[in-house]
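Before relying on records like the one below, remember that each one covers exactly one chain. Contacts with other chains, cofactors or solvent are not represented anywhere in the record.
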Amino acid sequence: MLNIALQDAGLDIEFESPAINVIGFEHEPATDQERAVLLQANRTFDAAERLFVWPSGAACKQTGAKRTPITYEHDGDDEKPNAPEANYEVSYRFVCEHPEKLEWIEVRLFGATRGMQKITATVVTPKIQRQTELTAAHTQVSLKPD
């Protein structure tokens, strides 16, 4: 799920996905390789400028980001992780000097994840509210009214 909201000069982007789509597993990392995969994903998602691209004339600058740590559910009496619902969540805040020039956003999440097939993007601006399905072949979200 990808939520994009534009209000005045503020652009908010939120991304949430099952961890298996982002890092390839939903359990607590058990090996050095799994810990390295999670660390690399965190580094990738900390660099919003590589994940989202828009017209340079909009002059948007990142002013905040929050990555929610993955939480792992526990199965009743034993303390072994059981995470069928483990999610990867991150949100970003940008301020755009020229939000009227923000006509589209290219979403580069497919190259940064390990199993993402599609993303439902919800866009809300003062002029539109719509959902768009993104795939590796269709990565651009329009912020213009039709």
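The chain has one domain: 2-142.
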